[in-house]
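Throughout our pipeline, every protein is held as a single compact record rather than as scattered files. This encoding replaces a full spatial description with a residue-level series of whole-number codes. The remainder of this section carries one protein's record, kept here as part of the documentation.
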Amino acid sequence: MTTAGAPRAVDLDLAPAIDRLFAEPPAQSSRAHRELFARFLAALETGVARAAEPDPLSPTGWRVNPWVKRGILLGFRLGAIIDQSVGVPHAGKGLPFYDKDTYPLQRFPVGSGVRIVPGGSGIRSGSHVARGVVCMPPMYVNVGAYVGEGTLIDSHALVGSCAQVGARVHLSAAAQLGGVLEPVGASPVIIEDEVLIGGNCGVYE
């Protein structure tokens, strides 16, 4: 059972507010809606909110949090596609990116302790990558994913949407962890602490 990096309590009003907005989507998003989603995104990135989390009372040892998946889907509804390119791509001096404005580029300060080796990796906003994680290029971590401390994500490896990865895991080159965003009540792919996923191996829903 993975216990490292257990999340702190989520703001009591965050989950019901997300559920209400998901159930009654507005014709046009307001500043208040955007602020709510920004709070939700921050909760994902800090590991406070998780698509699934350890629960000793559950038969599987894990509890799915459907409201988190609804929040992720809500971000796609609220957002508009914008240019998020890095540098000046049309001049051959950058990388072109086009995504929903509700999912801006995620930044990692040096003090975060996350090592992202140069070479085309991507870590989407709304994912949690803990201290000591090493990212070898090119790898990808999708929205809603949780990656525990000291994990190595090797070249060409994928951590799919909402996948939960424990501490000190080795995702070998070209390993694939499938994304399970819908249905919202379905368990995502879960890899607990100190697991080796071999090269070219896939773990799917």
In short: The first strand starts at residue 52 and ends at 54. Confidence is low (pLDDT under 50) at residues 1-7. The longest helix spans residues 31-45.
